[in-house]
Amino acid sequence: MEIADMRVGIGVDAHAYRADKKTPLHLAALEWPDEIALAGHSDADVAAPAACDALLSASGCGDLGSVFGTSRPEWKNAAGAALLAETLRILRQAGWQVQNISIQIIGERPRFAPRKAEAEQKLQEIVGAPVSITATTTDHLGFTGRAEGLAAIATALIYRA
Q: What's the helix, strand, coil split of the chain in %, to 5?
């Protein structure tokens, strides 16, 4: 494989917590029933859309806003897993495959470690390549530190199929 056949992309997503506490959180393609949901056009799963943004960025096939933005009503309330599946379809159609994805979730809650393996397995099943996920806090700095929402940063490595 030549170096020109590989690309790296970085993606970011961030959302505030919703005011209603009845809807469960969706994070890393998992439902977290005892946690407050995030507000957004889709289900606001910050991890999966950050991965989408990284993949789209690397491939040159667009970005999160141009592919799934609020101007696209068909993606309203869509699951992060569905966004990721569509992103993979777009990449494959353009001749790209995923080598791996690394995602960092930033926020005070939920406690991610107990479901880390489950989340990685779920995303790996969707992507068909290794996915690693870590979580961190910002020591109470910024909107994530004040527990007002979550953010995620993803890095993706893709290669020409």
A: 35, 35, 30
